[in-house]
Amino acid sequence: MQSHFLVGIDGGGTHCRVRLIDDRGRLLAECQGGPANIFSNTERAMSTALALVNDAFMLAGLPPSAQRDTWAGFGFAGANVQRARKQAESWPMPFASRTIASDVEIACLGAHAGQPGAVMILGTGSQATSFDGQTFHSFGGWGFGLGDQGSGAILGRHALRLALQAHEGIFPVSPLTEALMADFNHSPEDLLLWTQSAGARDWAAFSPRIFDYAVQGDCHGLDLVRQLAREIDSMLACLVNKGSPRIALMGGIAQPILPWLHDRWRGYIVSAAGDALDGALRLGRGVMAATSSHTLSAQSLSPPQG
């Protein structure tokens, strides 16, 4: 199959990004839009992603008909749920070929240039996967209600629960708990009302402040960050036990948590070689090697030759 273009799509829970290149690897266009989680809303996610692809072709000065000569690689939040992935895979698309993976899988391909390795996404939520050169082995990604250990949202929830308990005299107050309760006028009822509409991103928004207080030596801040580090240590142990030779940490929590992790992981944690869109482009190029069990050929994931 001949193809003139490759398009990579990174559909996340916060925003969707698209990168268009030609078959020599030259960047033609990039654009970004709203959220694209196929589990939360498959129709909206697919509409958002495909509209951004159209925008990218327009920015590149290419007609919509050029999409028929395009390999497409999609990485979506929510694609770890097989029902959602199958719905997305059945969506009508104009491309010469396409494949759909999860956002953590394309992040892994990008981080290790298509070679074996693992990633752990530590942002509002959390998820991890390892790639052995053929198959992805993933865990996490089940959302705020069931998972997201080691994430900003869980850190924020732990902190606000502790702030409320300190306010009621169950635990001693600290500058951190006082500052958190001040956001709600030191009123448990105001805090309760806030929780009725708060989403994971709202809880995660408290994370930077918690890290700041921990660095300053706040007793509760230290306990919260150390607890978060233990959760991440457990996930790192799982990846290492699965044989991952190197692990890239990604997301807003990745850098601030590094000093708090156990020293045993220092030899495994590496910087990412590329981003999720790099991984999506590799996925698009390797689409002919993809199977329903998400087994990929490492050779097929090599970058376009220029």
Structural notes for this entry:
The protein has helices at 42-59, 82-89, 103-111, 152-167, 175-182, 188-195, 200-204, 207-215, 219-241, 254-257, 276-285, and strands at 5-11, 16-22, 27-33, 70-76, 97-102, 117-122, 126-131, 136-140, 247-250, 269-270. It is built from 11 helices and 10 strands. The two termini are 18 Å apart. Helix 3 (103-111) crosses helix 11. It has 306 residues and is of the alpha/beta class. Mean pLDDT is 88; it is low at 287-306. It folds into 2 domains: 5-113 and 273-301, Nucleotidyltransferase, domain 5, CATH 3.30.420; 152-270, ATPase, nucleotide binding domain (Nucleotidyltransferase, domain 5), CATH 3.30.420.40.
Largest β-sheet summary: 5 strands, mixed
Proportion in helices = 25-40%
CATH superfamily label of the largest domain: ATPase, nucleotide binding domain
Extract low-pLDDT stretches.
287-306
CATH fold type of the largest domain: Nucleotidyltransferase, domain 5
* Major beta sheet, strand line-up: 3-2-1-4-5
CATH class of the largest domain: Alpha Beta
* Radius of gyration computed on alpha carbons: 21 Å
**Looking at the structure, what is the overall shape?**
globular
Q: What separation lies between the terminal Cα atoms?
A: 18 Å
Q: Topology as H/E string?
A: EEEHEHEHEEEHHHHHHEHEH
